[in-house]
């Protein structure tokens, strides 16, 4: 089979731009001009436009790539998980891996264009999907309080996001907030949502 | 790994596929009880309901997100021209 080198080259450049944008956005936020991304990636400014006509196109592609990666990881991990505790542990692990980018994303989500916002909602829906299937099971078994699923989910995200958004208060240096607080966040949340263990006579 | 053409979910295990049939290109959640793939409207409504149920979104907002997600998937492209 004939290998189309130009096509491969084009794909490589695209990948390079996305990877660089991921890094630059993580460090500097989403309003960085595309010229800076071009410079960092070592490609011409025109090449960015050839791949992504607008910065919004770049952002949306980057987010869906990010969502696919995060989704695939979670999907594999959630498969092996039978308790909400283990699922949330895995969720924290994945968040820790993408912590800088994810924190930037949740802190700037409201100023991003609608398409990017929607892509973010779809990323969360992958998490919500696994969360719902595990927690419904636990509610049925009586190990978790019978509360609406969306409130259980949003309470968890609210807690984790609060720490990520206020990182400067919760850690002094560049250490990972997730790393430092994950066991406290997890045990507190579980304490709030779990039913008291029934004592049988 | 195959991903569902109707919702994008990765399908690894047989149980992920519609009717437990790995030759199918869509997942268990995108199929009807008889194993056929859901229609555009059915999928849009079920995904909207899912967003409301699991994340508590406003229903109209959720419907727009559902449309935005479907726009990017091979099965539904033709509905967005
Ligand atoms: Zn599907």
UniProtKB/TrEMBL annotation, chain A:
User: Does the keyword DNA-binding belong to this entry?
Assistant: yes
Is the keyword Amino-acid biosynthesis in the record?
no
Q: What organism is the protein native to?
A: Lutispora thermophila DSM 19022
Q: Where is the HTH tetR-type domain?
A: 11-70
The protein in question is named: Transcriptional regulator, TetR family
Q: Which residues bind DNA?
A: 33-52
In its UniProt record, a GO molecular function of this protein is: DNA binding
Report the InterPro entries cross-referenced here: Homeodomain-like_sf, HTH-type_Tx_Regulator, HTH_TetR
Superkingdom classification of source: Bacteria
Keywords annotated in UniProt: DNA-binding
The record's section on PANTHER family has: ACREF/ENVCD OPERON REPRESSOR-RELATED, ACREF_ENVCD OPERON REPRESSOR-RELATED
From TrEMBL, chain B:
What biological-process terms (Gene Ontology) are attached?
A: regulation of DNA-templated transcription
Q: Which GO terms describe its molecular function?
A: DNA binding
Domain called HTH merR-type: residue spans: 1-20
Q: Which InterPro entries match?
A: MerR-type_HTH_dom, Zn_ribbon_dom_put
Q: Which domain of life is it from?
A: Bacteria
User: Can you name this protein?
Assistant: Putative zinc ribbon domain-containing protein
């Amino acid at each position: 089979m004939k290998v189309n080198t130009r096509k491969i080259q084009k794909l490589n450049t695209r990948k390079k731009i996305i990877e660089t944008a991921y890094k630059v956005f993580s460090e500097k936020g989403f309003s960085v001009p595309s010229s800076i991304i071009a410079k960092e990636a070592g490609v011409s400014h025109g090449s960015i436009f050839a791949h992504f006509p607008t910065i919004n196109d770049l952002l949306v592609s980057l987010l869906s790539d990010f969502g696919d990666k995060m989704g695939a990881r979670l999907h594999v991990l959630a498969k092996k998980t039978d308790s909400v505790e283990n699922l949330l542990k895995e969720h924290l692990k994945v968040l820790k891996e993408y912590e800088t980018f994810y924190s930037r994303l949740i802190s700037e989500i409201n100023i991003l264009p609608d398409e990017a916002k929607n892509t973010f909602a779809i990323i969360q829906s992958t998490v919500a999907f696994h969360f719902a299937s595990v927690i419904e099971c636990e509610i049925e078994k009586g190990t978790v309080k019978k509360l609406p699923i969306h409130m259980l989910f949003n309470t968890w995200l609210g807690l984790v996001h609060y720490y990520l958004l206020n990182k400067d208060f919760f850690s002094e240096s560049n250490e990972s907030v997730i790393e430092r607080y994950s066991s406290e966040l997890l045990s507190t949340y579980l304490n709030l949502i779990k039913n008291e263990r029934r004592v049988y006579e | 790994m195959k991903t569902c053409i109707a919702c994008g979910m990765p399908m690894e295990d047989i149980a992920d596929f519609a009717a437990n049939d790995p030759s199918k290109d869509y997942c268990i959640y995108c199929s009807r009880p008889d194993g056929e793939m859901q229609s555009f409207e059915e999928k849009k409504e079920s995904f909207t309901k899912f967003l409301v149920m699991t994340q508590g979104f406003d229903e109209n907002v959720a419907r727009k997100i559902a449309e935005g997600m479907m726009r990017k998937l091979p099965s539904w492209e033709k509905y967005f021209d």
